[in-house]
Input
Amino acid sequence: MNQTLQERIELLKPKNAAKSLNVLGRMLMDNREMSLWERDTRTLPRGARRWRRRALEFAREHIRPLAARADLNPYDFDPKPLLAKAAREGLQTLLVTPPIGRAYTLAYLRGISLQTAVVAEELATECGGLALLLLAHNLGIAPLALSGDLAAFFRHFVPYYLKLKFLGKSDTMAFAITEPEAGSDVEDTEGGARARLVTTARPTAGGFILNGRKCFISGARAADKFTVFAKIEAEGLDSWSCFLVEKGMKGFSLGRRERKMGQRACDASELIFEDVFIPGKNLVGKLRSGWANNRNVLNYSRPVVGAMALGHGRGAFERCLEFCRATRLGPRLLIEYQDVRLELADMMISLWAARSMVWQSCRQFRCYQSASAAAKVFASDTAYKVCNQAMELMGDHGYLHLHGVERAWRDSRLTQIYEGTNEINRLALFEHQMTTDFNGERSSETEQI
Output
């Protein structure tokens, strides 16, 4: 029988070739036509699976239409309606389970950060700035949830969460550690010991007097409350304590708003404290427990940052793929060229590997330092690389704001910086595994170099 080349190719494709196998062989060969998104989703615990689907729908319906405008004109963008929609949808209350929060219980027991991470990827796929706006409050309230202070948890956390859950309020919280002369160094043990801190708390009758400044605080303009870390006056970073500060407190004000390259829809603003009285009940956790609390918060938040970065890379990939399907180069569509297919496959493999690492770091009830740091580093570096690849494939079109790829590129760069720069995160991995993996027995003979 004479066959054309195309007919032979069709016969050799896996789904057709499988027909030559016996029944058991066909059962053992998975030829279902299913997207990688769907395949990955089906590996998640049921609750996380549901949240991934809901977040995808929310992002496409509510974030996609706002993304370009919020990025180009962040100063004219009002975040409150979007925050209220997210609260009503339950996206703002994923840190704990019912009856307080909206996280599914069984999935939560598999990993506290997993549901937040899968939501973060979906939101960031559409817009990094709006994703940060919606997710930054999780970081703000994390010290309350992770401090182990039951009094603070029930006094501050529970009422706030119930208000978000049942009333759909647009209230948010923000996390404040960075200072003008102390950035990522306060997220590293050795750097922290040398950090120059200006924000101080002075014990006084009934509470504390807070003075100093914080900078680059994500979501500060929209936030109503802040978890602020300050050292005790005349002491070092080991005295760091966490305080709940509310807008409207006398002496507390917002300073300048930074003009950012990426994630522009979410502000990064300065906080100014001038003799702000903080009631004793607003101390979060034990006095001088702030350093340990902060380090643990990062253990839970870094995989989520990795998931956000993954979303930026995936967004760039999806837009690039759409462009390659619709654009011709000479007689053929771009996607019909083998070198383009190789590049697209490489991008997909990179994102798939990053997602696996992020999810793996979240698949335990307690997140730990080395896995969290590694996931954040790998995912953010991968996302930046994928965004670059997308821009190169699209040429001049990738550089235009119209397609959203250059926005994803700008957004992804920030994930390599906050929650500790990637260099700091590499050191965090080294520190955590120092005695078990990096500090093996030395040879009895010293090699001369």
